[in-house]
Amino acid sequence: MPIMWFYLLTNVITQYVCIWGVLILTTECTSLAVTLIVTLRKFVSLIISILYFQNPFTVCHWLDTLFVFIGTLMYKEVWNNLGITRSQPQKEDKKN
């Protein structure tokens, strides 16, 4: 088997797995969460590509990295959850 056919087959299989995972994810999560997860996956793919092909990681890449992670933390409301657990104990439900 020529190597290009192998690469093509590998690419088709990995794309199928990716699409299958996204379809399952859409049944379990909201559309916004799915979009966020897919964006993070693309970001990780970009970082791996930069490292593998030894391209320069510029200041713009660092800013984009910062924006991606800040956006993720804002969406998941990490700062609000950390503030609640540190400053306020959780209230127990009263049973009557």
UniProtKB/TrEMBL annotation:
Record InterPro entries: SCL35B1-4/HUT1
Keyword Glycoprotein annotated: no
Subcellular location: Endomembrane system
Listed Pfam families: UAA
Domain of life according to the entry: Eukaryota
Family, as annotated: Belongs to the nucleotide-sugar transporter family. SLC35B subfamily.
Protein name: Solute carrier family 35 member B4
Natural source organism: Myotis myotis
